[in-house]
Amino acid sequence: MTSLRLATVHPGEPEIFHSLQGEGISLGRPSVFVRLSGCNLACLWCDTPYTWYFTGHNARHRGCETFVRRENSLTLDIAEVARRIAEFGCRHIVFTGGEPLLQQPALAALCALLGPDYHIEIESNGTVALTAAFDAHVDQLNLSPKLAHSGNAADLRVNETSLAGYARDPRAWFKFVVASPEDADEIDALASQYAIAAERILLMPEGTSPAVLQQRAHWLAPLCLDRGWRFTDRLHIHLYGDTRGT
Ligand code: SF4
Questions:
Q1: Whole-angstrom Cα distance, residue 114 to residue 79?
Q2: Is the dihedral of CA 34, 37, 39, 42 positive or negative?
Q3: Which positions does UniProt annotate for Mg(2+) binding (predicted)?
Q4: Which of 46, 152, 175 to mutate to test the pocket of ligand 1 (most atoms within 8 A of CB)?
Q5: What residues contact residue 35 under an 8 Å CB cut-off, 6+ apart?
Q6: Which of 3.40.50, 1.20.950, 3.20.20, 1.10.10 would CATH assign to domain 3-174?
Q7: Rg of the chain's alpha carbons, rounded to an integer?
Q8: Which residues of the chain have a pLDDT value below 70?
Q9: Measured from the CB, is residue 125 less than 6 Å from ligand 1?
């Protein structure tokens, strides 16, 4: 039996849902989302801390208590995950997290079970390289390398080998979460070091409320125009608020 560790919408119910992609290059596309539990980073402002910030975790997180692991994650056989995905009748899948690439053997087995008719999109922090087995199934990579304001140590949030590999991968887009205009210099430095073309870079305001996103968009939009980067909003926050399963 091969299984995935998944986040929950509420205790006992895996976070597998049908919605519009809220961020990045596929914004607005109807997709089935599968949210995996567990992450190798610990971002201060993470909007899905229930996927990793479990009781006993010694990192800091802005504004929330730790979560009880058994209420916020569960293990599900990939055959059941495939059955639930198929029920939606949508051929576009987004594996998100947490950090989904921590569970590549099970993801590769799930994709093999689903067959070739699905478009597979991955949301990852870019610190974990693709395995050969999973690589063969992946159509699109939405990578979100973390900047200093995430609170992660530099040697954890940037894996040079992994990021250099993704920079050469035409399936990869680079979405940076931005909290202040000064973050642009850090993005410039990464883009230059890894030779990432401006048109593959998207900037997204950090925020979990429409008011904060709108306020930050005022300075982020002209910044993107100036540097030739794309701007991405967080559609799901505007439509549904900061809620699970959306
Ligand atoms: S990498 Fe993503 S899931 Fe992990 S802590 Fe940071 S924002 Fe959260």
A1: 9
A2: positive
A3: 48
A4: 46
A5: 6, 7, 15, 16, 48, 51, 96, 97, 98
A6: 3.20.20
A7: 17
A8: none
A9: yes
Instruction: Give the Å distances, CA to CA, from 87 to 57, 83, 185.
Output: 36, 6, 45
* Atom 8 of ligand 1: nearest residue by CA position: 46
- The position carrying tokens 């509420």 is 10
Write the burial class of residue 91 (CB in 10 Å: 0-12 exposed, 13-18 middle, 19+ buried).
Answer: middle
- The full set of domain ranges for the chain reads 3-174
* Cα(111) to centroid(ligand 1), Å: 23
Spacing, Cα 241 to ligand 1 middle (Å): 19
Q: Is there a contact between 52 and 38 (Cβ–Cβ < 8 Å)? A: yes
